[in-house]
Amino acid sequence: MGQSRQELALNTDFAGESTQLEQIKAVLEQIARAGFTHIHWCHEWDREYMYSVYEMRQIREWMDEYGLASKALHSTKGSARDVEIREGHYRKDYTSNWEYNRKAGVELIKNRVDLAEALGASEIVLHLYVPYLTIQRQPETKEDFYGCVYRSLDELMPYCREKKVRICIENLFDVPDKYMLEAWDRLFARYAKEFLGLCYDTGHANMVWRESAPEILGRYADRLYAVHIHDNNGAMDSHWIPGDGGIQWEKVMDVIARSAYEGPLLLELGCNERDPERYLKRAYEAGCRLDALYKKGR
Q1: What is the Cα 132 distance to its own chain's centre?
Q2: 3-class secondary structure, 226
Q3: What angle do helix axes 99-119 and 53-65 make, rounded to 10 degrees?
Q4: Mean pLDDT over residues 177-185, rounded?
Q5: Where are the beta strands (DSSP E) in 105-191?
Q6: Chain centroid, CA 84 distance in Å
Q7: What pLDDT shows up at residue 4?
Q8: How far is it, in rounded angstroms, from Cα 118 to Cα 99?
Q9: Of all helices (H) and strands (E), which one includes residue 234?
Q10: Largest Cα–Cα distance in the chain?
């Protein structure tokens, strides 16, 4: 693939997911042909899928075939559910107060840690949904919720350290900012940065914080080890190519450049166009422009 390519990462589900293996392999070839050097494995980023060790080997062989490395992968929180409330129990939920179900959620995350190790990634991205509506109605449930989260992270920590894979908690748009920031403050006070960091999603941040997003990111810059870079107009999680929306990229890249983040930059995009090759060319060019800003700030 040549060594002159600009180092950039792209999510593997940029055009959706398929369970057909030929299509999964073709996506990796498309990403490499467009010039990207790294992938962000996002297939099965949600729900309960467990990867076999043989699937891990297959993905890694395809990556090697196309000259691709791995920049993080997206883990899963477990079953689909109403994330704003804590009601009922859903499979493989690492925040569950049913002990076996919580442990099943830990097992699911360990599976993604194993996948990260197999693909050569040093971090996984994880969603933490604080059930804020339940907490508002029943404040006493907050400590029980966090107690479950702490037990799960306590169990994951030695496993992650052994595998040399860090967990990065992503900022979300469907959790009010005060609950998201409280979660970060609690977790970062409790766990060392070698185990737990932050994934900064630029699109989510623009929806919640708008022009204040770079300043808020700056407060946690020493914990920034993963990024999801995409654009929007502030109203929807559009996953547009950077420059197609309203994010002030000079300010965002300046903060990322002065953070703990070590690159390469990672685009998390959603292609709805008929010509994916043309789309990927435009995405790669946008990524190169951001990388220039990032390196200028470094």
Answers
A1: 22
A2: strand
A3: 30
A4: 97
A5: 123-126, 166-170
A6: 20
A7: 58
A8: 29
A9: none
A10: 58
